[in-house]
Amino acid sequence: MSAQVSEVIEMIPVTRAHAAEDKESARILRQLKQIQNSGQQLDVTNELFASSSWMTFQVFNFLCLLFTLNKAWKGEITVGDVLMYQAFFGAIIGSVSLLLMMYPQMMAGLESMRSIAEILESPDVEENEGKRVVKSVQGRITLDRLMYQYPKTDRPAIVDLSLDIRAGECVAFVGESGSGKSTLMNLLIGFRRPTSGRILLDGQDMQELNLRTFRRHIAVVPQQTVLFSGTVRENITYGLDNVKEADVQQAVEMANVKEFASRLPQGLNTPVGPHGGKLSGGQRQRIAIARALLRNPRVIILDEATSALDVISEHLVQEAINRLVKDRTTFIVAHRLSTIRHADRVVVMQDGRAVEVGTQSDLLAANGAFSRLKMLQV
Fold first, then answer.
1. FRET pair for 137, CA 20 to 30 Å: which of 13, 117, 272, 349?
2. What is the C-alpha separation between 34 and 113, in angstroms, rounded?
3. What is the C-alpha to C-alpha distance for residues 46 and 36, in angstroms, rounded to an integer?
């Protein structure tokens, strides 16, 4: 219910744009009614169980009292024994009643333990303990017959991909949606593990590395940048301690953040609002690039970093990207071919395979898949 309410709140502009307010309200009310009915049924069941158990024990206690009184009447036991037995019966019945009253809480606790166990036993949980710590990164990445298939799917998302990326090289990945570009980036970051094959970082299998320490040497600029509800400065320095002001100013200058930050009421100390809602898409992207520059990464992943921007914002962001990728191993996922002009190599993805690999001039001369993509955007 909480997830549905959050979704409805985030989708209010879309809901209003399609005049579907009444439909969404009715859907939420139906869900609330189901929760109300389930809660009432649970309460009624618990109370019936508690009442029936209390009545059963009281009847049992009364029968025990009659039995002991009968024994005392016959002189087989004393009146003191009757009181002692009643005290014993009362203590036993009270303890059993307390255990039975705890039964619903015990069941809820066991269900929570099962949920935790499912997470702990999941093969997708990242295990970094005891693995090799990454202290430095040169930036050479080798894909060795890499394959990945999502669970419960008919075909793999990445098929037999082999590629050697030199340290400091800029490689662009292009292709239609669903060709495996974003899946490959998730594999490079370590969010997903290959079904088969290997990813080598400076000659070392990434399966043997502590990925948390590896990610300290990379930076990711996604298509939709999400900022935290802090200031511009806090978002730029996110995850870093004891950052020098000179380094912050240099990152701000190189990422073209200064161009708009100087117009903000409090400069870099201006709150950006929830999810960076007070800033435009281009401004959020430049903050993400400044964040990446400040980390001084050796590996950079740009996942459609300019696809949602207007021409002016794209130009400013592209200038910042050109400064960011200098002398760093860079992976660019792009649909706009204008954003990969400075790429050293281009990989054309199709159905999870690399159908073409080479420089832009070589691929255009080959008149293949890349040439067709280029013609479609002219």
1. 349
2. 25
3. 15
**pTM exceeding the 0.85 threshold for the entire prediction:** no
Long-range residue pairs from 141-145, CB within 8 A, at least 24 positions apart, any chain? 141/165, 141/188, 141/199, 141/200, 141/201, 141/299, 141/329, 142/198, 142/199, 142/200, 142/203, 143/197, 143/198, 143/199, 143/200, 144/197, 144/198, 144/199, 144/200, 145/196, 145/197, 145/198
Residues paired with residue 353 on neighbouring β-strands, in sequence order: 350
Q: Distance between CA atoms of 58 and 173, rounded to whole angstroms?
A: 76
Beta pairing, strands 196-201 & 141-148: antiparallel
Instruction: Specify the pairing of strand 345-350 against strand 353-358.
Output: antiparallel
Rounded to an integer, what distance in angstroms lies between the CA atom of residue 133 and that of residue 172? 29
Q: For 30-42, b where at least 16 C-beta lie within 10 A, e where not — what string? A: eeeeeeeeeeeee
- pLDDT tens for residues 163-209? 999 998 999 999 888 888 889 998 998 888 899 999 999 999 998 88
Please report the DSSP string for 238-304 in residue order.
TT-SS--HHHHHHHHHHTT-HHHHTTSTTGGGSB--GGGTTS-HHHHHHHHHHHHHHH--SEEEEES
Read off the pLDDT of residues 92-101 as tens digits, 9 standing for 90 and up. Answer: 888 887 777 7
DSSP letter for 133, please.
P
Residue 30 tokens read as 């139906």
Phi, psi of 188 (to 5 degrees): -65, -40
